[in-house]
Design a protein that fits this description.
This protein is an alpha+beta fold. The chain has a domain at 68-128. Helices cover 26% and strands 36% of the residues. The protein is built from 1 helix and 11 strands, in the order H-E-E-E-E-E-E-E-E-E-E-E. The protein has one helix at 2-34, and strands at 39-41, 44-46, 51-53, 59-60, 65-66, 69-73, 79-84, 92-96, 102-108, 113-118, 124-128. A 6-stranded antiparallel β-sheet has the order 6-7-8-9-10-11, with no helix packed on it. Strands 1-2-3 form a 3-stranded antiparallel β-sheet, with no helix packed on it.
Amino acid sequence: MQDVEARIARLERTARRWRIAAVGLMAVMGTGLLMGQIRMTGEGINTNKLTAGTVAATGVTADVVTAKKIVITDADGNERVSAGTENTGSPFVEMKDKGGKTLLAIGTDGKNGTLVIMDAQGKKLFAAP
């Protein structure tokens, strides 16, 4: 009777390993299918629905891109998202509307973090701290 129980336990362990291997293989295959959906061209990143221009920065190594400010613009050239340490030396992230008004600002002064949410007229809706 103990031989049967030991054999069943061994078979369950083996089945568990095969199940984990099968799920891992499906994940790798799914990743392989999704790769190649974004094509890098001479003009930047291009997909059927997403296009981003070429990235230019002040210092580039194999693993690190260094810049004081990174700006993302919309199709009309309006600044929509910016991140960096441009003037203050403290990190910040800003999200803007088409008119250039800041709607969301996240930053720090080196000691405390701040979060500010504004409407299109520049009125503060929420600020912490």
